[in-house]
Amino acid sequence: MAQVTFDEVTKRYDGTLAVDRFNLSVTDGELLVLLGPSGCGKTTALRMVAGLEELTEGSISIGDDVVNDVDPKDRDVAMVFQSYALYPHLNVAKNIEFPLRQRGIEKRERERLVNDTAQMLGLGDTLARKPGQLSGGQRQRVALARAIVRNPKVFLMDEPLSNLDAALRVQTRADIVALQQRLGTTTLYVTHDQVEAMTMGHRIAVMSHGELQQVAAPQDLYVRPANTFVAGFLGSPGMNLMPGRLEAGEGPGPFVRVAGGVVPLPAPVAGSDPDVVLGVRPEGLRIARDGPVAATVTIVELLGAEAHVICSLEDGTRLVIRQDNAQPRPGQKETISVSVDPGSIHIFSASDGTRRDVPG
Amino acid sequence: MTTLAHRPSSASPRRVRRLKEIGLGYLLVLPALAIFAVFTFYPFVHNFKLAFYQTPPVPGLPAHYVGLHQVTQVLSSSSFLESLSTTFIFVALIVPISLIAGLALAVVAHRKLRGMSVYRMIFSSTVVSSVAVAAVVFGTLMNPIVGLLPWLGINPTPPLLENTTWALPSVALMTIWQFLGLSFIIMSAGLQSVPEEVLEAARIDGATAWTRFWRVTVPMLSPTIFFGVVVGTIFAFQSFGQIDILIGAQNAAYRHVDVLIYNIVNTLTQDNNPGAAAVMSIALFLITLVLTLLQLRFLERRVQYAD
Predict the structure, then answer these.
(1) Could you tell me if A149 lies within 8 Å of chain B, comparing CB atoms?
(2) Domain boundaries, chain B
(3) Whether the Cβ atoms of residue B161 and residue B170 lie closer than 8 Å to each other
(4) CA nearest to B140, candidates B130, B127, B151
(5) Contact A283, A316 (CB under 8 A)
(6) CB nearest A73 (choices: B195, B207, B307)
C-alpha cells in the first residue's frame, strides 16, 4: 500500500505536450479516477506511473520513493489494460501465475495464490482454457486476477471496462469497486466515461489538453465545478453555459445580462471584470410563464423518465432544460420563457473560464 | 431488358445471365489455364508415365514399360539415398541458421530508431537478388586466388568449392544468405503481430527482456517460425542454380553436393535417363507436398486471440 504523487510532471512527444505540469496526490487506499476526453493525457499519466513512458520533467513517487528511473518490474504496480493484454499462448492459470513466477515465488505458494484469486473472481472452471476461448467478461476478470494476485502497492487500470457490453459494464463496475474496497489497494483508474468516474471514484481528477482541471469528490465536482470545462464535461447533458455581462442591481446581488434576458444573482460575485459566463445545470432551468430569459425550442427529446428540451437563445447559444414527466412539453419552434433556479447558478470568468462566484 | 411477356418462366433469364457470367469467367482464366496446362499439368502427368518406362542405356532404342520395377530400383539405389541424405544435411544447415539469423535481424530492426528503414531494406534485399548473380558473387568471394574468404585466411586445400568437406557448407552459406531476406521479412511480419501491450504487461509483471523474448515473443511467434521452417525447407529442397554455378558436374567435390534436385537434373542430362529422373522428381514432389500439408494443418489449428 502506498500513495502515488505526481510532482510537476510533464510529458512531451516530439514537441506535442501530452501532460503539462501535472500535480496530484493519490492517497493510500484511494480509488482515484482520471477522467477526460480522449487525447487529454490521462493514459499517458497512468503509463508514466507504470514506467512504460518516461517523464520529460518532474517526478513521480510511489510511497516515499521517487520512481522516475525505476524499471516497471521493480515498481510493484499492476496494470489492467483496455485490451486486457493477456498472454494468448498461456492458459488462464498460467496467465495469472505469470507475475508470481517472475518474482520467484515457490510453486506450492503460486498454486495457492492462483487458485484463491481465481475463486475470488469466479474463474475457477476456466483455469485450463486459453484466453481465445473465453468471453470478453472472463478475459477482463483474468486481467484483473493477474493484477491482484501478487498484491501490488498500486493498481493501474486503463479503461478496463470499455470493451464490455453495457450490461456487463455496469455489473463489473460494481465488482471492481467492491474488490478495491476489500483489498484496500491504492488504485488509479483511467476512463473517459463520466458515469464510470462518478460511480467508482472516491475522487475524480478531470484532465483536458494535458492539464489537470480539478480534483474533487464526485458530488463536489458536479456541484462546484472549478471551470467551464469541468462544468460542461460532467453531467449528461453538461451544464448550460451562457456568455453574459454583470450589471449592478437593487437586490442582494447583481444581474447577468445574457442574450434573451436578464438573470438576477442571489449573491455578489468576486472580481471586477463584468464579462462572465453564466452556468446552469439542465435541472436548474424551468419553462415558466414569467421567466426572465426568452428562448426558442429546437427539439424535445423524450427519454422515458424525463425529457430534454433543447432550445436556443437569440444569439444561438444552446440551452438544455431537463423536465420530469409532470411538466408540460413545449412544441417545436415555440418561443418559451425560462426561469433559473437561484440555487443552481454558477458564474465563471469569461476570459479564462475559472469559477468566480466565490467571494474574495 | 426483360419484360414479363418475354419470360416463359421467371427463373430462366436469370439463369441465362448466370451462364453468361460463368462463361465469361472461364474465358478470362483460359490463357492462364493454357499456360499451366502446357508447362505444369502436362509435364506433371507425363512425369508419372515416364516413371513406369525405362530408357535403354543404348541411344536410339525405344523406352519400354517396366511397371513399378524402376520405381523400387531408383528409390533403393545408393545414388538416390545418398542424394537424399545430402539434401537433408543441406536443409539442416540452411533452415535453422537462416531463421535464427532472420529473427535476430528482425528483432534489431523492430526497434523504433531513426534510419531503421534503411536497414530493413538492406536486410530484405537478398530476396530480390537472382541466384545466378549471388552465386557468381559468392564464387568470387570463395575463389582461392582472388577471394575474400581465402584472404581472411579461410583457404583449405583443396579450395573451398572443390573440397569434399567444405563444398556443401559453402553452398549452404550462400543459400542461407539468399534465404535470409525472406526469413527477415517473415520474422518481421511475425513480430508486428505481437501486440505491444502484451509485452508491456509482461514488463510490469516483472519479466526481464530475456524472459519477455523467450516466454512471450517466441511462443507468440511459433506459427511464424513454423511457416518459416516450411518455406525454408522447400526453398532449400529446390536449390539448384547455386550448386550448378558454384560446383558444377566437373568438380571433384561434385558427389558431395549432389542434392536431390541436382541429381535429378544430372540423371536426365548427363546419364540421359528420364525414367529414373522422373521417379526422383515424384519423390521430391511428395516430400514437398507433405511439408505443405503439415503447414496448412498447423496454421489452421493455431489459436486466434483477437476477436
Answers:
(1) no
(2) 2-65, 73-306
(3) yes
(4) B151
(5) no
(6) B207
Q: How much is the pLDDT for B257?
A: 86
| Residues of B within an 8 Å Cβ radius of A | 195, 197-198, 200-208, 211, 216, 219-220, 222, 303-305, 307
pLDDT at residue B1, rounded to an integer: 46
From the number of C-beta atoms within 10 Å of its C-beta (0-12, 13-18, 19+), residue B173 rates as: buried
Other residues' Cβ atoms within 10 Å of the Cβ of residue A353? 18
Residue-wise pLDDT for A91-139, tens only, equals: 999 999 999 999 999 999 999 999 999 999 999 999 999 999 999 999 9
CATH topology of domain B73-306: MetI-like fold (1.10.3720)
Residue A345 region by backbone torsions, left for phi larger than 0, else alpha for psi between -120 and 50, else beta: beta
- Kind and range of the H or E element at A243? strand A240-247
Q: Which residues contact B144 (CB under 8 A, 6 or more apart)?
A: B150, B155, B159, B160
Counting as low any pLDDT under 70, the low residues of chain B are 1-11, 249, 299-307
Residue A88 and residue B205: Cβ atoms within 8 Å?
no
Angstrom distance (rounded) from CA B52 to CA B64: 8
Q: Give per-residue pLDDT as tens, B25-39.
A: 999 999 999 999 999
Counts of helices then strands in chain A (DSSP H, E):
8, 20
- Residues of chain B in contact with residue A132, where contact means CB-CB under 8 angstroms, are 303-305
Strands A4-13 and A16-26: antiparallel
User: Which residues does A304 contact at the CB level (< 8 Å), separation at least 6?
Assistant: none
